[in-house]
Amino acid sequence: MNVAVGDRRQIDLSGLQGLIDVLAARGYTVLGPTVRDGAIVQAPIHVVDDLPRGWGDDQEAGQYRLRRRDDEALFGFASGAQSAKPVFFPAETLLWRGRRDHQTFSVEAPDGSSTDQAGKGGPPYAVLGVRSCDLCAIGVQDTVLAGRTFTDADYQDRRAGSFIVAVTCSDPGGTCFCVSMDTGPRPQAGRGAAFDVALTELIDERGHRFLVEVGTERGADLLAELAAPSASAEDLGAADDVAATAAERMGRELDTAGIKELLYASAESPRWDDVASRCLSCTNCTAVCPTCFCTSVEDVSDLSGDQAERNRIWDSCFNAEFSYIHGGTVRESPRSRYRQWLTHKLASWIDQFGTSGCVGCGRCITWCPAAIDLTVEVAALRESAPTARSDD
After folding, report:
1. Secondary structure of residue 17 in the 3-state scheme
2. Contact 369, 282 (CB under 8 A)
């Protein structure tokens, strides 16, 4: 069967299982959403029943709860607690390991022989169920970590061999605002990282099935092996309706007009004191953010003192030590740290990388224990700085 990039095909549940099987047979470790410990998280997927069939979620500021749906949807939930970031940019990465043997000291680089390195030398990952907002976040990280003069070799290695199965978001949560950021709810070619195939789940009187859009030659090759038939005009229309309905049901909005200038003009706003009185500097927002990339280096040794390791670990600009330089900490207060985070995310990120650092997934709102909502904070800054103007 001939399949080309841009083709739209149709598969049913058995076809989705076939997709998982073909990816596994080609050597991919297939990761996808599954229910674990009261949340939808990413984990290895082997069969369709590993997916969160019939599960949805309720998300609001500082709130997350799973709920049973009245149908058998596999992707009927909003953004999970984890994006694709930990797959390509792990929370901890071994940089080198050293061993002391009598009077000698040898250093091992984390190459393909390192059994504890899931990326280098290991099987490539196929990530199933990537939402459009997270696809855009991958695109941001591609720019930051692999698109500049000095690239992150580990990230580049993991991304180079990956296979992306995107999915249209059909049931956005109360904290989602991807429409405001032009990042969703439907994956689109040319917006964010490239997907290999994109799914739109359809459940109606005609059955449970998926519209499949082919994004790359690898995706076309996979669909050809599945012998997926062309999608009908009815299914094309139904998929458009799913995306349009989701776009109308965003839980939040963010006015992005002149937002860079607004943040720059608000450096001394008293609003930062208000948010600082609530912020716990817990780093939850940066941990769940699909685009944050701050790291630190940690050295550890065993009890014998004969083995040492250096690891790169996720860090956060909300940690007081993060801005420490010889002589003291640059950003000592929660006020300065929250201002740094929000201003970088929505303003100076644009200057650095040509795009916003926010994709509207809403995770920072959902997983903030103090229920701090960046859309509310920006609206408050805009209210107190009515003269802020855009470049227009």
Report:
1. helix
2. yes
Other C-beta atoms lying within 10 Å of the C-beta of residue 324: 13
pLDDT digits (tens, 9 = 90+) for 258-315: 999 999 999 999 999 999 999 999 999 999 999 999 999 999 988 888 889 999 999 9
Please give, one letter per residue, the 3-state secondary structure of the chain: CCCCCCCEEEEEHHHHHHHHHHHHHCCCEEEEEEEECCEEEEEECCCHHHCCCCEEEEEECCEEEEEECCCCCCCCCCCCCCCCHHHHCCCEEEEEEEEEECCEEEEECCCCCCCCCCCCCCCCEEEEEECHHHHHHHHHHHHHHHCCCCCCHHHHHHHHCCEEEEECCCCCCCCCCHHHHCCCCCCCCCCCCCCCEEEEEEEECCEEEEEEEECCHHHHHHHHHHCCCECCHHHHHHHHHHHHHHHCCCCCCCCCCCHHHHHHHCCCCCHHHHHHCCCCCCCHHHHHCCCCCCEEEEEEECCCCCEEEEEEEECCCCCHHHHEECCEECCCCHHHHHHHHHHHHHHHHHHHHCCCCCCCCCHHHHCCCCCCCHHHHHHHHHHHCCCCCCCC
H/E stretch holding 135 reads helix 132-141
Per residue in 138-166, pLDDT (tens digit) is 999 999 999 888 899 999 999 998 999 99
Integer-rounded Cα Rg, in Å, for the chain is 22
Instruction: Calculate ∠ Cα 64-70-75, nearest 5°.
Output: 60
Q: Is the pTM of this model over 0.85?
A: yes
CA pair distance 196, 339, nearest whole angstrom: 37
